[in-house]
Amino acid sequence: MRRLLALLLLWTSCSLADPPVLRFSVAESWSMPLVRVEGEQPVEGLLFDLMQGIAREVGARPEYHVLARLRLQQAMDEGDIDVRCYVSTQWFNDRPGHFVWSIPLFHQRDVLVGQPGDNAPTRPEQLPRQAIGTVLGYTYTTLEPLFEQGQLRREDSRSQALALQKLQIGRYRHAVSNELSLQWFNQRLPAEQRLQVLAVLEEQALGCMVRNDPAIPTQGILRALVRMQQSGEIARIMQRYGARVAIDEVAAQQPGK
Fold first, then answer.
1. Higher pLDDT, 242 or 167
2. Which of 51, 62, 186, 223 has the highest CB neighbour number within 10 Å of its CB?
């Protein structure tokens, strides 16, 4: 009887124990449909739903660390985050040895954006000398030579949404945006006020990075992402936030396409 009570107590203690914590990074520069932050915590968005789904799959409690984009690498190096999502291998000169890559989950296009009515396809090198709307901490590989030559000058904003708002009010004539954020920005505007895609600058496969540490279920997280991809859950999350491919016709007009 005494042994039975001890086993029951042990089972009850394990049942009441808090689930393990999984620390996700959230970039301050993200805006809808990727994420919306209130009171320093994400509350909705495509990536919020993805991270919630990952934590649910592995039985963990998600903890979100909202960081400036330039702080993300430092947080990874210091072991302050366990999972970083919406990231490309192209963004790293050296492969982070203490993190493991997931399968590709998203396909992102960075596009050159113009003001309403400016819808003629344009190559960046054809632009006159000017400032162009960019996001603080982002690297734009195809535009770097033009920045170095002084033909284009970065005008950084803290978020993608703010960069598009500045373009809308005429702060500058052109900006760079990822396709998802541009679609979200335009969807509530009348057709004649929508910002226009002028060119596809680059395309990237994005996934997640998971800290390779015995303290967290690294392989379990990677397997969970495979399941979520194969089951169509990730596609449903994207559809929930209106993700769609709407610029194939622009890409087709670019040289070499």
1. 167
2. 51
* Local structure of 213: helix, strand or coil: coil
Kindly state whether residue 10 falls inside one of the protein's structural domains.
no
Same domain, 87 and 149: no
User: How far apart are the C-alpha atoms of 257 and 253, rounded to whole Å?
Assistant: 7
Which residues, 6+ apart, have CB-to-CB distance to 192 below 8 Å? 116, 117
> CA–CA distance from 130 to each of 149, 151, 208, 223 (Å)?
12, 7, 35, 47
Distance CA(166)–CA(158), nearest Å, equals 12
Residues 6+ apart with CB under 8 A from 61: 18, 19, 20, 21, 22, 55
Number of domains in the chain: 2
| 100 and 154 housed in the same domain | no
- CA 40 to chain CA centroid, nearest Å: 17
Helix, strand, coil % over all residues of the chain, rounded to 5: 40, 30, 35
The answer for 8, left when phi > 0, alpha when psi is -120 to 50, beta otherwise, is: alpha
Between 36-50, 82-96, 164-178, 207-221, the lowest mean confidence (pLDDT) is in 82-96
Domain that holds residue 43: 19-107+204-240
Q: Is residue 11 assigned to a domain? A: no
Contact of 115 with 159, CB cutoff 8 Å: no
CA distance 6 to 189: 65
Same domain, 188 and 209: no
Q: Does the residue 82 lie in any domain? A: yes
